Known about the structure:
Layout: H1 2-83, H2 88-111, H3 117-136, H4 141-167
Helix pairs in contact: 1-2, 3-4
Amino acid sequence: MILTSCNKDEKIQTASLEQQKLDYQSRQIDLEKQKLAIEKEKISFEKQKDSLNKVAEEKEKERVAANNRVTKRSSTRSSSSGSSGGGGGSSSGSTASNSGSSGSTGTTATQKKGWSSAAKGTVIGTVGGAAAGAIISRKNPGLGAVIGGVAGGATGYTIGRANDRKTGRVQK
């Protein structure tokens, strides 16, 4: 009877080891599936990235082609006007108007980049005024900082706005 009971424990242990091996293998298979899914996601991401790059390149080509068409049209107009006898003055006028319109479009695009002088002046004035107000008002530095910040911000905005008007960023 003792031999039989010892033999059962060995059978249970071997069955348990087999079960553990199967569990380990199934976990390994799950990990491999996850790795495969990750690789598929990477590939699809790269495809999307490539397609976005292609779209951007096509847009750039279209923009360059449109610029070339505008340039060719303006040069065609100026050469045809220049070849007629009395149209010499009008050709320079049309060329100037074309370059003027494209130049104003370019300056508008570049002017909108970055902070305006009014915004910069407001920030600088607010910080400077708050610091000065806190230093000057020794009894109540918090109130002095608030009052100084408001006054400095208003002054900075006014000065910056005037500078924006001078540079042409803002019309009255």
